[in-house]
Hints:
Elements: E1 24-26, E2 31-32, E3 35-36, H1 48-53, E4 56-59, E5 64-69, E6 72-79, E7 86-89, E8 92-94, H2 102-109, E9 114-118, E10 121-128, E11 133-139, E12 147-152, H3 159-164
Parallel strand pairs: 1-7
Antiparallel strand pairs: 1-2, 2-3, 4-5, 5-6, 6-12, 7-8, 9-10, 10-11, 11-12
Amino acid sequence: MGLFSFLNTDRRNFDVSASDSRLSVDLTKFIIGSTPLGKEPWDGDSFAKHLEKEVTLKSEQYGYELGVKNGKLDYAFFTVKDFKGTFLVKDKSLLLSNTTDREEIISIFGEPYWTDFDDSEIILFYEFQESATELQFEFPDGKHLEFITLMKDGILSKQEQRESYGVNKPWPPKKRQ
């Protein structure tokens, strides 16, 4: 054990490249790596330096894309089958794969604010933090989870988008318990 190994508890063999296969994503605290959505990327996150210069970091190899707006982490998009990192829910690792179905997501996150059905595609929309944060689960074939999107001021925060999705519920949604 090295002298400073105790400092490296979460970041074994920390990767200094922009994309990191060990990226952790907290789907309940809305934290990517160590950076909360809506905050400036933390210098210790592998993606921070890249996002100082660019507005997006797309890592097809590791199955994710991150974007900033006005210097703050604005969204994270994940291709489930390619994502090599870890999803967390309430501080516990959550195994999500392209075999995860809609019922499993609902059992974990509860009923979504809105469900969009378009041909065979289904998107579950969850609204958090007084509708300032949106979490989406997308099932292109209507059965298997393929994409997860976490974003500030999500799609449904805009009235014209709610209208285009046929949302007929009050906005903003009631606070989740």
